[in-house]
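Proteins fold reproducibly. Next comes an illustrative record:
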Amino acid sequence: MYNLLVSGSDESWNGEPFMIEPNRYLEYTENDIKEVYRELNNTCISKITRFPCIFAYEKSCNKNPFFGLIQELTVRRNGIKIQYELIPIDDFLTANQLIDMQFELDISKLELNRTHWAIKNVNLPKELYSKNILLPEWTLRQKKAVDIDKHIFDVAFSFPGEIRDYIEPIVEELENTIGRNSYFYDKNYKAQLARPSLDILLQSIYKDRTKLIVVFLCKKYQEKKWCGIEFNAIRQIIHKKEHDRIMYVKMDDGVVDGVLNTDGYIDGRTHNPKEIAKFIKTRIDSLKQNNTAT
């Protein structure tokens, strides 16, 4: 998947935020993709901002497009503000080359005559590579499976299923920054978790093979059997005074046995998932620096 953003102003893509009318979002986009990305909520935005982007001009501008990423979206009834980062690519597409590749990039015949934002179901790195244009390594990153009986994770999440909609954008943001197999998230490893004695495996992952455990505290957490199993491992970490391996995010005023009122936490009610992901990344980086120093 990739984002195609086309502007009719030859002063666009100069680093300043780009404004687009809401009705021009998802123009020239297949209907099945529209159904998935129509509503620009946190989950949708988290996915979209992971797609590589072509920032192009209308044909009349006769200016070369750029490659980059969407950094942040602000959605209002009368407009969408897009903050982005342009990433220099040696010998990236010229305006004429973009026209020549309209079929490969799923760009309609008249599409470059109108300002709009489309999402395309195209493997952009593959198509550009065929033209000897090499994108940054992260766009080529493969999601290889790992053996979760042995693998060491940078971070794992402990939470009840009722708040999964809040968790999803966090893990997607982290995948973009630290890589898929650097974090343990149950939905990524469904096949390997379908086994007997799952409680033993989870204890091993949380207690022995995860550098940082992020615990999402709430009333439902206290009630859930599997959260209790995970927290047993967390208790042992606390007992060993390895406090830097635990990070609390509080989702409501529910009480969780073993968590004291003097324990520090981030308030998930006042921070959005993208902010939580940044906090987690900061803790991971700190742990790595400490390990290097010792």
The chain has ten helices and eleven strands. Residues 2-140 form one domain. The two ends are 42 Å apart (CA to CA). The chain has a mean pLDDT of 91.
